[in-house]
Specification:
Two copies of one chain form a homodimer.
Chain A (H helix, E strand, L loop, with lengths): L4 E4 L3 H14 L5 E3 L2 H13 L6 E4 L15 H11 L4 E6 L4 H10 L4 E4 L4 H13 L4 E2 L1 H6 L10 H12 L6 H7 L7 H15 L4 H11 L3
Parallel strand pairs in A: 1-2, 1-3, 3-4, 4-5, 5-6
Helix pairs in contact in A: 2-3
Chain B binds a DNA duplex through helix 9.
Chain lengths: ~220, ~220
Amino acid sequence: MFKRILIAEDHETQNISLQKTLTELGTEKPEYVFYCDDALTWIKNAVKAGQPYDLLITDLYFEEDHNRQKIMGGAELIKAAKEVQPNLKTLVFSGESKTAVIDSLFKEMHIDGYVRKARHDGQYLKLAIAAILNHKKYLSPDLKLARKENNSHDFSDLDIAIISQLVEGTPQKNIPYYLQENNIKPSGLSSIEKRLNLMKEVLGFSKNEQLIAYCKDIGII
Amino acid sequence: MFKRILIAEDHETQNISLQKTLTELGTEKPEYVFYCDDALTWIKNAVKAGQPYDLLITDLYFEEDHNRQKIMGGAELIKAAKEVQPNLKTLVFSGESKTAVIDSLFKEMHIDGYVRKARHDGQYLKLAIAAILNHKKYLSPDLKLARKENNSHDFSDLDIAIISQLVEGTPQKNIPYYLQENNIKPSGLSSIEKRLNLMKEVLGFSKNEQLIAYCKDIGII
DNA sequence: GTGAAACTTACGGGAAACCGTAGCAGGGCT
DNA sequence: AGCCCTGCTACGGTTTCCCGTAAGTTTCAC
């Protein structure tokens, strides 16, 4: 079992249960912090002291409070940590279920495991740690399923830019100016109309209001 | 301290840390389930056995899986539980932060406390239980803040009907027919326009799209 | 270089939404 | 009753949006 594990998780209760799970697995003193900046500091100090951590377990999203932080989320933390200690194993433990986000964690951040906060997260944490001990990657099984049922329209950057502008209150006819300023192509008014029509058609909507509500529901804005 | 507490929470790790918190507070054997239907069964059995629970701690949203459930969420569970045991104290522990949702829990379901899953949720759980022991209501402080900055328009039934119709895709000009059929007055097109304008003016919006997004955020639709 | 295809943009007619005004109905008051 | 006040509705002009068509641009193959 890993001897030195660091937990970065802002929710107090989640942090506690992570500690409990790890002690059950045989890590005598799992260490834990509630802020990303603290996590990085501890990792640096551990490297300096010649006793680096074996594993970092971190959440993805940390809530802001009065303590201003340089590092705002788990992805940034992992990036910074790997600069200090490239061989550090990393396990992400978060409620995020969007495949695009998780895929990029594996591909770009080279994380070793991802467990979604969900029904059987305790079991899966144990399996994940076992896998990582054997230098394998791990992804909790509830996500492998979720990946398939995704038959909805996948929104491009342009789509999201258009919808965001609508939600900001920009009149449709002014959106081309915004897109030009931000070097998003295409930027013609007709293209915007066409894009909106496409999205509404795929999803079976007739009005922008429906589209906005849908996007709010699935969380892309 | 409460002697008999039932936890309904589908996330394994959250469930574990709730148990731990409660034992620290002096409840010897907090009982726990992972499904709402089980929770109701246990409550019924406890009443029959003459040893009813003192407190129910429940999440709001439960994820569906292969076990088909009759009761899908915490709100329904509370309603069903109070029919069996009206004096049951209830504490909701969830990640939900929309004020409209939480307000309705207090007003309509008469819950005794709400703690949001967030940074200091462990502390707040303890405070909540202490308050409920004294027959007081409790709301975790991170939400009190959110509530004050809320100088918003309070939405009437008419407002919500109009917005709902927009989200359904009904063209504005057809909404009068819908309102007449449902005996909602006023129902004139001008009144609808006036009402939409008022809402947007109060909230500083210029377009329906903004209004829809706002209503989704605060959870009234 | 030429042409075809795909994509982007421009334009114009018609529908919907927006906005101010005026007319109408009901309630309360003298 | 007569009057005022309030709120609902109806109407017309302007703006925005919707949608089909046509013209321009880029890409790629031959």
